[in-house]
Specification:
Radius of gyration: 21 Å
Number of strands: 12
Helix content: 25-40%
Oligomer: single chain
Largest sheet: 8 strands, mixed
Shape: globular
Order of helices and strands: EEEHEEHEHHHEHEHEEHHHHEE
Distance between the termini: 25 Å
């Protein structure tokens, strides 16, 4: 499902991003006792028209990275470019334009919509903030995006509590669409929804991508959804990207032991192979600031001394056109 005819430009580029959070002792005036490295020297790029999925266990840094991309958090080091704009050096006007073209869809549609506003006010709030539309056009654009997500103009005067979870997520998607974005960051957009509704939202997102030439960064624990939606996958572990590549390559030929652990339930694997992979240790990983070398070495069955001392860097193992990169001293090749 690659869109290489559209992907002739990089829409988002991150170089050597890192983000730390302070850990304080209990109490109102707790002192800083340590730091957690939530995002660890991450570099990646997203091409126009593609869907990049970011996967990994809870607490690995996926949502923190998404907030950095959305300019909701500042990295401690590294740079981010959106199109030709270097975000760290952007003035207020440039930053406002970036935020207009980069929108988010959050995990919980119940929490992401203001219960005191009707749907018209919720949808048109971005237009009021950016001030690019006349108020006469607000109603027209609100009706347009509601129609795009499968809702009616009569819903504009209703309030969030009058809708189901799936309908609320459609409203959240409509709100992201109303400023005509180029990139949508979707942070676990299906996890709060019933299974029966999830496929409808997946199909909606894929249709909107085609109709509006959108680019997606999708954060998800749901690997079947990732396999269905994504063009490329980046696998995070303790804040670092340990493997990235085309979705087909990641699911059928993972090279990093951690990626193999994640994909161990994939239906394409034989029962014997799934059984082997499920035997990998699954204890809670220690935080990145507490160790050196490869972040996965404490759980990896292939660990050797070098893994505990030297951190492996991402290196290509696939074709140049669709590079598959892995950060492992002893990548799996079978």
């Amino acid at each position: 499902m690659s869109n290489k005819d559209q992907t002739d430009q990089v829409i988002l580029r991150a170089d050597s991003l890192s983000k730390r959070f302070a850990v304080k002792s209990p109490g109102l005036f707790g002192r800083v006792t340590s730091e957690i490295l939530a995002v660890d020297n991450v570099s990646l790029q997203l091409e126009a028209g593609e869907t990049l999925a970011l996967v990994g266990e809870s607490g690995c840094g996926k949502s923190t990275l998404a907030k950095i991309f959305a300019t909701l958090l500042k990295p401690d080091s590294g740079t981010i470019s959106f199109g030709q704009t270097l975000i760290g050096n952007a003035g207020s006007r440039e930053l406002r334009e970036v935020r207009k073209k980069l929108q988010l869809v959050f995990q919980d549609p119940y929490a992401s919509l203001n219960p005191r506003l009707n749907i018209k006010d919720i949808l048109t709030e971005p237009l009021k903030i950016h001030g690019d539309e006349s108020r006469e056009d607000f109603h027209k654009k609100a009706v347009e995006v509601l129609d795009a997500v499968g809702l009616e103009a009569s819903d504009l005067q209703k309030y969030p509590h009058q809708f189901s979870g799936g309908q609320r997520q459609r409203i959240a998607i409509a709100r992201a669409l109303i400023s005509d974005p180029e990139l949508i960051i979707a942070d676990e957009p299906l996890s709060a929804l019933d299974v029966s509704v999830q496929s409808q939202i997946i199909n909606l997102l894929m249709r909107l991508k085609q109709d509006r030439n959108l680019t997606y960064l999708v954060i998800s624990h749901n690997l079947p959804v990732v396999a269905h939606m994504a063009d490329r996958v980046a696998v995070m572990y303790l804040g670092a990207i340990v493997e990235s590549g085309p979705v087909e390559s990641i699911f059928t030929s993972p090279h990093h032991p951690y990626t193999r652990l994640l994909t161990s339930s994939a239906p394409k694997l034989s029962a014997k192979k799934r059984s082997e992979l499920r035997n990998l240790p699954r204890e809670r990983p220690i935080q990145r600031h507490e160790q050196s070398g490869c972040p996965f070495h404490g759980r990896c069955p292939k660990t050797q001394e070098i893994c505990q001392i030297n951190r492996p860097m991402l290196e290509n193992v696939g074709e140049i056109t669709y590079p598959h990169a892995v950060a492992c001293h002893f990548p799996c090749n079978d």
